[in-house]
Amino acid sequence: MQAHPDNDSSTTPSPDPGIFSGTPTADEGTARASADAHAEGADREEAGSTRRRGILWLTGAAALGAVGTAASALNGGIGGGARGSAGAPGPSASAAGIASGPGALSSPASAQQVVSSQAPSPRVVGTSEGDTGAMAPDPSADGINVAERTGGFADGTDGTGSSSGDSQGDAAAATPAPPEVYSHAPQQASLTATTDLAPGVTLRTSPAWHLARRASDAATAEIAADIESMGVEAWLDAQLAPESIDDSRAEDIVSTYFPWSQMTTPELVGPTNGAVYKASPSVTNAILARLRFSNRVLAESIVEMLADHVYVPLRGKGESFITGFDIALRKHALGRYADFLHAALTDVALLEELDNVESTRDSPNENLGRELLELYTVGRDTYSEDDVKGSTRLLTGHGKDWETLSYVYRSEQHATGPVDVLDFHDENDDAARGPDLLKRYVEYLCAHPATAQRLATRIARRYIEDEPSQAVVDHIAQAYLDNDTRIAPAVRAALTHSDFQASVGRKWRRPIELVMTVARAAHPQSLTPRGRDDGDEPYNTGVYGWLVKDAGQDPRMYATVDGYPDTAEYWMSTSRMMNLWNATQNAVIGDEKESGRTDWVTVLDVEAGANAVETAARISWHLTGYAWPDSHLEAVASVLAGAPSSGSAEEWTVAGDGIDNDVMEAVRLCFASPYGFLR
Predict the structure, then answer these.
(1) Residues 6+ apart with CB under 8 A from 202
(2) Distance separating alpha carbons of residues 146 and 160, to the nearest angstrom
(3) Which of 385, 508, 520, 669 could make an SS bond with 218 (beta carbons 3.0 to 4.6 A apart)?
(4) Are 501 and 207 in contact (CB under 8 A)?
(5) What is the predicted pLDDT for the residue at 526?
(6) pLDDT tens-digit profile of 426-457?
């Protein structure tokens, strides 16, 4: 059960084929079929004209930059085949008149020439131009009208527009007003930076957007607007006291569709007819729902960070008890780390996953004792093998009760005798005091300076950069120790440090962050999940969930015990980049059966006849939070204008014919660029 030290991404584990890429299980078959049917929208008719497909590749190469151009060429352009299948090779950058690295089209005329003579007509995955019949979600279930349940959008608009009547479960019937913030002109970009993650691209953003991208796993313009309105300090204070934030939208969705995720294993016996393991996909769906709809965005980010730190897979040996672990994680995530770790060590899911339920005085099992030191607290190179033995003996007797399906301590299975772990010593001469001994041991480990350094490194890596400075790690560690091992002050210390402000462009989005950013920006007006607890497709996580999984980040299902890596190096390999592009392709359409095809024209308030460059500047800012240079905006404007063959960019206007699909392709270009991938 050895793990990679400190989530080191230099050694890539081989993922379990049954988790990531192999033949789906019977329970997952429906989910894959749903996502495949979604992608087959490209086959319902020729996916746009050769002109549009070619210009999408061309503008993609122009705007993606050095990293994007290389991967785009490998994949036959932005519109390469779904789920990693390679398309035909695209035209070379030189043939297209594009300088090496990020640049602009040499001229609209040359673009048209390349499209007509060289473009291989790669199919844009999931596109269904002109197909309006697929826009309505499944009306068979009583769906939640999201705007109605929440009283509107985060920016204060009512979210209902001029539509009347009940639009529950029928997104096609709704005519909602877009969130007001998307109609606003871009804010001033006062932060400028360059990054090795996107060579040649100069990044310009605002402090509010920089904080939104880091503090939220799915940043949107509304979150940035809230920060701008409240101010950084007030916004952080509110987010780090999440109980003060109204989160009825997300909690209504979780309570309505995924209530099993909020029940302990004993409570699940009745609802699941004894098959308590069936609740694990409910946790997956609840995670995705909260990332997509919760207003407590920083709390959700911290929850997922700690879930990687004290890692228990959702579908592992502790699967039948995983809901209780998630409840404990959410309860303690912003509080004392010592309280959370003690709760985890007395939770059956972790005890089962690391075999402590079988660890007795006569047959001790070192898995949990070792990982407690190596992963959860002081880290490798701090402890000895004798420390592992002492840690293991301390944990004997802590297990599960099959009758009550809960944690139990059995004193008769506890190994007594003196224990020494690092500088912690106890005579351990009374087995009945085993629970108290564990509590004191956890308090000692969590207050250890080495533990503070490890947690501070993880927090800095999550919120600042992949290789944080020792100065910022020390600063965060001190905040952790000064506040009795509390996580919230440590996170606040990271997000208010000068290194944070200087870290623009130094983090890369993982698949779940990219896909859920697209999903959150889509602003569906209704929701009818297919993986609801009371349905017959519990493992169906919808299109977004399947895309996240297929891109390599099935929520809390990493192949080893140290949780998903959080470094760009791990996620920027060629195959993972291809998966991310394909995930972006399909995510932009939306989950048609769940909530209808995303109406980006309405969401982004795009009007036919509007200046194409100004519209490109506005939507690229509100989707990515970066102010794009004119050369890159021209690429987006060309798509919005229907790839005009004449006239200057300043003269282009948003085309009325095919506006739905032109805007969709422009959105894809925004999210599939370095601006969309950089967190």
Answers:
(1) 192, 193, 194, 629
(2) 10
(3) 520
(4) yes
(5) 84
(6) 999 999 999 999 999 999 999 999 999 999 99
The per-residue DSSP string of 490-509 comes to: HHHHHHTSHHHHT-TT--B-
- CB 137, CB 526: distance < 8 Å: yes
Cα–Cα distance between 451 and 379 in angstroms, integer? Answer: 7
Q: 534: Cβ–Cβ under 8 A, 6 or more apart, which residues?
A: none
Contacting residues for 604 by C-beta, under 8 A, at least 6 apart: 178, 182, 618, 619, 622, 623, 663, 667
Please state, rounded to an integer, the average pLDDT across all residues of the chain.
81
Residue 420 backbone phi and psi in degrees, to 5: -135, 120
Quote the pLDDT of residue 178. Answer: 62
Number of residues assigned to the chain: 679
pLDDT tens per residue, range 470-522: 999 999 999 999 999 999 999 999 999 999 999 999 999 999 999 999 999 99
- Please tell me whether residue 566 adopts helix, strand or coil conformation: coil
Distance CA 551, CA 21 (A): 9
Residue 206 confidence (pLDDT): 98
DSSP string, 363-409: S---HHHHHIIIIISS-TTS--HHHHHHHHHHHTTEEEETTTTEEEE
Please give the Cα distance from 401 to 654 (Å, whole number). 65
